[in-house]
Structures are given as structure tokens and as C-alpha cells.
Amino acid sequence: MLARRRSLVTALLSTLLAAGTLVGVSTPAEAAGPPIFGRVTDASTGKPIRTVKVLLFDAGWSYVSRVKVRDNGVYQLPSPGAGSYHLQFVDGRPAYNTKAYAARLDVRIRVGASPVQKNVRLHRGGAIGGTVEVRGKRAANAQIRAISNGGQVIMVEANKRGEYALGGLAKDDYRVFAYDAKNRRVGPSKLIKKVKLRTFRQASFNLTTKPGSIRGFLTVGGVRARGTVFVTAVNKKTGEYWVQKVSAGNLSLRGLTPGPYRVEVPDSAGYAGGSFTIGTVRAGGKRNASIDLTPRG
Q: Where do the domains of the chain lie, and which CATH numbers do they carry?
């Protein structure tokens, strides 16, 4: 398991925000505090960077807002008020761009009564790339995900020739997973150690194992859970994870690599969530698992 990693929910949220997609995030209230502003520049040349998105989180890593820097590298965000906050600086270009800048995932600031200036310098990141095959044949549109030791999550889709690249990587170790787009085959992940800035590392996959699945229900006091929630299945051995939408309590996760699993369910207005051990998913097998949640109030 990767050390020092923030919760999977937070790591995944920052990635979805960078991609311009929000899942289950409510619109924040209008900010009333002093602004947070600054300039983003290239650490080597000092020139402004205009491809970066700036994300603002509160002290508990709840999403607040985001903004794209201007052509001159300047950004400005309104704050909700006095307090401690986290800023993330993420290159907004596609994840396969090998010239992308490495993200800064935790820039801490303190807001008081006056505007806060925070200038940031970014380095061009490293990259990992290669090919994905299914039983020796190129896997078009395969899905690749990398999770860093420090919490960065990057996802990309291979092209029609099964080729992929993950750019904008900070100096760190990365666990890389590949999945057949049609859920026919999976394979073991690869740990790429000591990825450096401005370097390219090779990691190719040949997927030969039949995936497993988890099927069952989410219940509250024995009755199917109402509404919609996003649950996360985590391979306890490798750290691989899958986020799945669950509606009306129907739990169905497919395309899983073999191994022991837990399922993380977020809190809801009607019940308390938690982390639940499921057991081992076998290659080509189906794991039946129903989770009974504790009602609130």
C-alpha cells in the first residue's frame, strides 16, 4: 500500500477537478472574504504559465472553488473568509501531454483580514508511457491510472494502437494500473520508482487475467438504500481502486484485479458510511457482498 497518501476520495476529487468534471460536489456558497491572488511562473525560465488551474480547498479538504490563470500567469480567487486553506496548482492540458508541468497538490495559506498573495513556480514534470496489450494484441482505448506516493492521481486513455503517456508527474514513486476498456482482461500493476522531472519512463502491460466482480446491495436496516451514492472499491494488496455509482442500493463493480478488497461508502443524510472488508475477489469470479449501513438519527 502506498504510504503518506491522502484519502482516495480527496485524491480522486483533485484529478476530476483538473479534468473539468465534478462528481457529487455541491456548488459552494458565494465567497465573502479577502481575495487570494498571485502569479504562476516556470521555475527554469521565470516566464508566466497560462495553462494552469488553481483549486481552493478548506482546511478539511472540502472543495471551495477553482479558477484558470490568465495569459500573464496571474490568478485571483475569492476566499470564504478568515481561516486556513489548501491550494492546488494543476496543468490543465490533457494528461497525455509529456510537456505538462508537475502539479503542486498542497500549498497552504492562511487568510486573515487582508488579501493574500501566493506566487508559485512550477517545474516541467516527468512522464511514463508505453503500450497496453490484451494477450499479445494492442488494446485500443485501454484505461491507465497512476497514483503517486504523495497523493497525485492521473488517468488517461490509450489511443487506438494501445499507446499511452502520462505527463506532468512530480518527483515521486508511482503505482501504474492498466485496464482493458471492455473488461475482458486485467493484469498486475507496476511500481515505477523515483520518477524524475523532465524524464520519460517506460511501462508497458500485457493483460492476461480474467477480471473479477463484486455484486450485492447497500441496505439500511435491512432495506435497500435509497438515492445515489459513489462508492470506492480498493484492492488492499495493490492500492488499485474503482469508483462506482450505486443507485437504489444496487452494488455492482466489474473489471477488478484479483485480491482482497474493501468498499468505502461515504456518509449520507440517511445513514453513516464507512470502510467495509469484502474478502478476496478471484480471477474470473464473482464476490457476493451486501453491506448493511447504520441509520442516522
A: 8-122 (2.60.40.10), 126-207 (2.60.40.10), 212-295 (2.60.40.1120)
Which secondary-structure segment (H or E) carries 46?
Answer: none
| Separation CA 229–CA 241 (nearest Å) | 16
Q: 60: which 3 cell numbers?
A: 478539511
| Bridge partners for 246 per DSSP | 229
Amino acid (one-letter) located at 287:
R
- Report residues of the chain scoring pLDDT below 70: 1-32, 297
> Strand ranges (DSSP E) for 118-273?
120-122, 126-134, 137-138, 143-148, 153-157, 163-169, 172-179, 190-195, 200-202, 205-207, 212-220, 223-224, 228-235, 241-247, 250-256, 259-265, 271-272
The DSSP code for 157 is: E
Residue 79 grid cell = 476566499
Side-chain half-sphere exposure of 126, counting CA atoms within 13 A: 19
Give the Å distances, CA to CA, from 179 to 6, 138, 140, 187, 256. Answer: 23, 12, 11, 8, 9
Rounded CA-CA distance 153/104 in Å is: 12
Q: How far apart, in whole angstroms, are the C-alpha atoms of residue 152 and residue 104?
A: 9
pLDDT digit string (tens) for 162-186? Answer: 999 999 999 999 999 999 988 889 9
Q: Is the torsion defined by CA of 16, 76, 60, 168 positive or negative?
A: positive
> What torsion do the CA atoms of 80, 86, 92, 98 make, to the nearest 10 degrees?
180
Copy the grid coordinates of residue 66.
Answer: 477553482
Grid cell at residue 199: 524524464
End-to-end Cα spacing for the chain: 35
Enter the pTM of the model. 0.76
Q: Distance (Å, rounded) from C-alpha 234 to C-alpha 1?
A: 10
* Secondary structure of residue 73 in the 3-state scheme: coil
